[in-house]
Write a structure and sequence with these properties.
heterodimer, A: alpha/beta, Rossmann fold, 7 helices, globular, B: Rossmann fold, 2 domains, nine-stranded mixed β-sheet, five-stranded parallel β-sheet, 8 helices
Chain lengths: 261, 319
């Protein structure tokens, strides 16, 4: 069983702020973390290796400091990490990112399962998983909360969907995106941290992944961001006071104003 | 005439989710501004009668086959990509459902289109479409353009757009090509899990509980029931095993934007606030007057939810 886990290093969204002049988000000096959903993907990949043998590799596209996230993946227990990086990849939208990751996976060539988080917390597009699967011509299943069974040739999962759960079966190789319910990610071990320190993270560029110029980075992106901002709340909280009964009545008045009742 | 605007008319068990009508609403508005047509694309088996429910459309492409009976991300995306490649619509709008979010990015990749996810506004500025969407798990907003020489794909945030009335369209039957229906994927069964009638993303009102419930969600469920809403939860409540993950609101759960969000015993961690701060009205009940949730709330109550909720329920029943 060989799994490839797609991860992204993101700014810790809790710490993000906005430059009041430019209205752009301040990304520098913000603590960087592995996208929370991707930690579940890493844990699942590591568990599959522990249960079925084989190998698990983490793959990311991003600036060079993404190496920190890839080292953390090694500290958790993946066997190796690969970074696709370079100026040419900058400014990529989710679709261009998916193209690049698919080219990277094609270079790795042998794999049974690709695992990613269902969304990233920064862009939250949820596009990369399904788009990577399309480029590779393999089936995909989003929102997986449990792998029921996996063999050399097939996987059966529980997919969280609207109003319930679908039991879906796919032939391998396949791609799944996972939700938080699937597992509890482990902490990095001291042994893992030591291993991560020594690990070499290869950096792949355009030539390594044989990508087509014009399909990567900002040039290859069909979606262009014009503006970003954090909406500001204009009004202070109004505290409701009184007996429980009076408060109950006051809340119902607010619900009537909001046309809920 | 400008290129068409398409809507994926998702159906589940022969029912159209609310997001389809909201997608048709914005599609109609945009099509009228651009003097173009709205085409709904409906996939399934034995679903012809649903075409009568699709309002504000000029045409319905009806693709029926027994293999399209249940959702299949591979088959559905091949059918949609096949149709897009033949007709090159300007924009293809998908409801922001689990299936819409699974399909749209795959069809975009298959056809070389651009995509914006989770739009809460689409406007026409100087003849060009501008898409506003959430970033940073709901904390920020971004505005984007799409390259209009190729088909643009969007998923829309539940409840962000008004539904439309209007006419039903001409139904055009499309026979899927055999290669579109090949798949290495199979849905074996569906297990209904949320006991509620209203889904979290589509609810007008959400009653959410956190650590302060101590695991007692009974009063919250009753309040949600009498208000016709849904029950949400903080990560703390889900991690404690008090309520299932499907109810979790926040960074590693769902992002919601109801008309009213009643937060009960939720302190208001940033990760939770990110998932609900776009609610029109936020009411917070918490014993701790310093809880961060009060900085986000429109109305705050420092008090015991187990005394206050029954009074709200009694008052609603009177109304």
């Amino acid at each position: 069983m060989k799994s490839i886990v797609l991860i992204k290093q993101i700014p810790d969204t809790g710490e993000m702020s906005m430059d009041p002049q430019s209205k752009w988000l301040v990304r520098e000096d913000v603590n960087k973390i592995i996208n929370p959903f991707d930690t579940y993907a890493l844990e699942e990949g590591i568990r599959l290796k522990e249960q079925h043998g084989g190998e698990v590799v983490a793959l990311s596209m991003g600036p060079e400091h993404s190496k920190e996230a890839l080292k953390e993946a090694i500290a958790m227990g993946v066997d190796a990490s690969i970074l696709i990086s370079g100026d040419v990849f900058r400014g990529a939208d989710a679709q261009a990112t998916a193209y690049v990751l698919a080219k990277g996976i094609a270079k790795i060539s042998e794999y049974d399962l690709i695992i990613g988080g269902i969304y990233t917390s920064d862009g939250a597009t949820g596009q990369v998983g399904p788009a990577v699967a399309e480029h590779l011509g393999i089936p995909h299943i989003t929102g997986v909360r449990k792998i029921r069974e996996i063999s050399e040739t097939r996987i059966e999962v529980e997919r969280l969907t609207d109003g319930g759960v679908e039991v879906v079966e796919a032939e391998l190789p396949a791609l799944i995106t996972v939700v938080k319910e699937i597992n509890e990610p482990r902490l990095t071990s001291l042994k893992g941290i030591m291993k991560a320190k020594k690990a070499e993270i290869p950096i792949w560029g355009m030539d390594d992944i044989e990508a087509t110029e014009g399909r990567v980075g900002e040039t290859g992106s069909k979606a262009k961001v014009i503006d970003t901002w954090i909406p500001q709340r204009s009004k202070d909280v109004e505290m409701l006071e009184g007996s429980a009964q009076e408060i109950g009545k006051a809340i119902v008045d607010k619900l009537k104003t909001a046309k809920i009742i | 005439m400008a290129k068409e605007i398409w809507v994926f008319a998702e159906q589940r068990d022969k029912e159209l989710p609310g997001g389809v009508f909201e997608a048709l609403g914005i599609a109609r508005t945009l099509a009228d501004s651009l003097s173009t047509k709205v085409t709904a694309v409906l996939l399934g088996d034995g679903i012809r009668e649903l075409t009568g429910q699709l309002k504000g459309v000029d045409k319905v492409y009806l693709v029926e086959d027994k293999t399209l009976d249940s959702f299949n991300s591979e088959r559905f995306s091949k059918v949609l990509a096949g149709l897009v490649q033949k007709e090159n619509p300007l924009l293809f709008i998908f409801p922001g459902t689990a299936n819409g979010k699974s399909l749209a990015p795959r069809v975009a990749a298959a056809t070389g289109g651009g995509m914006v996810s989770d739009c809460n506004d689409i406007a026409l500025t100087d003849g060009k479409l501008e898409f506003t969407h959430s970033i940073l798990a709901g904390k920020g907003l971004a505005k984007a353009n799409l390259d209009e020489s190729v088909t643009g794909f969007v998923t829309i945030r539940p409840k962000a757009f008004e539904r439309t009335e209007g006419n039903t369209g001409e139904v055009i039957e499309i026979t899927p090509e055999a290669s579109w229906l090949e798949s290495k994927l199979k849905v074996k069964e569906f297990i209904a899990e949320l006991s509620e009638k209203v889904s979290l993303e589509e609810a007008d009102i959400i009653v959410a509980g956190g650590r302060g419930t101590g695991g007692n969600f009974g009063p919250l469920e009753e309040l949600a029931e009498v208000l016709g809403g849904a029950v949400g939860a903080s990560r703390a409540a889900v991690d404690a095993g008090w309520i299932s993950y499907a109810h979790q609101v926040g960074q590693t759960g769902k992002t919601v934007s109801p008309k009213v969000y009643i937060a009960c015993g939720i302190s208001g961690a940033l990760q939770h606030l990110a998932g609900m701060q776009s609610a029109d009205v936020i009411i917070a009940i918490n014993k701790n007057p310093d809880a961060p949730i009060f900085q986000m709330a429109h109305y705050g109550i420092v008090g015991d939810m187990f005394e206050i909720i029954p009074e709200i329920i009694a008052e609603v029943k009177k109304a």
